[in-house]
Amino acid sequence: MKILFGVQTEGNGHITQAIAVKQYLKQNGYDVSKAFAASKKRGLSKYFTDEFNVVEYDGFDFVFDSVGRVIIWKTLLKNTLELPRLILSFIKICNVIRKEKPDAIFNYYEPLVGLTSLFFRNIKYVSFGHQYAMDSSIYPRINGYPVQKLFLRIINKITSLRAKIVALSYYEFNDEEMIVSPPMLRSESYGVSDKQEDFVLVYLMNEDMLHQLFSEAKKYPDIKIECFTKLTKQHPELPNVKLYNLDGKLFQEKMKVCKAVICSGGFETSAEAIYQMKPLLMIPMPNHYEQHANCEDAYLASFGIYVDKIDLSKIPEYQMGNTKWFDTRQYVLQRVLYYLGVDH
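and the corresponding structure tokens:
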């Protein structure tokens, strides 16, 4: 069976999910080498391009301000003006699908790939994402963000047209409209270490947040910090801060031995910290409904706490984890394969 992937590459969450599922499928003999992904000015993450033969195109993109806030009106304006390019990209994706003739397409929240399902009714689609869990009645409700909530509902619909939905969640719940799944982490994430080293691991989705980290590091010189982000420029050196460009394998190694984790409000890195039972402090990106919702969800489930800005004094002392739920991932993937007509 041949399966193509569509992957939204803003941050590392959907990339991590795609790699995790690809690893499982490859171990079971499926052809899963090719993925669709929109090009980024800063380039796609190396650990993603190392895993897939990537078909790149001009896709939908977010616009951020200097401190990492999503600027909604600029985002909408930019993508409206680039509509002709988006149409050409859609045609490019459709041409590749016709050439490859896949049996199924696994979509990780990529809108253009979701829309192709209207034209390829002989192909089965499966849509993975924690965003779909936000449509469930059990998910915590966040006040405000009316435009972003509407936008999320629209993207949820576009990315899952004609698809079987797999909704990723920190915890188990029942929903007849979708398959509820634990986070899909890369195989390396499930190993644990007996060692613990004296540093706090930090993942920042936006490089511009580094000034917050440096300010806190100066306040707490005894706290050692190792930070991963997509580095594009020079930064000052501090004795208690080590900076790394994004490196999936190295990040996994650091996650297992760190004493605590600080990350933005993305789903995947927080899920890795939960599995590893690392004290978790989350910093949602300003004006970003989805990240605030993730943080509130993790907080209400007692997996971590969150604050508006990086504050090393707020790092919790412990974290209880949810290993039993996380370890049901292979059962969920077997349900997906059963949907595709594969009898395991």
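(Above: one complete record from the training split.) The domain at 3-186+326-339 is CATH 3.40.50.2000 (Rossmann fold).
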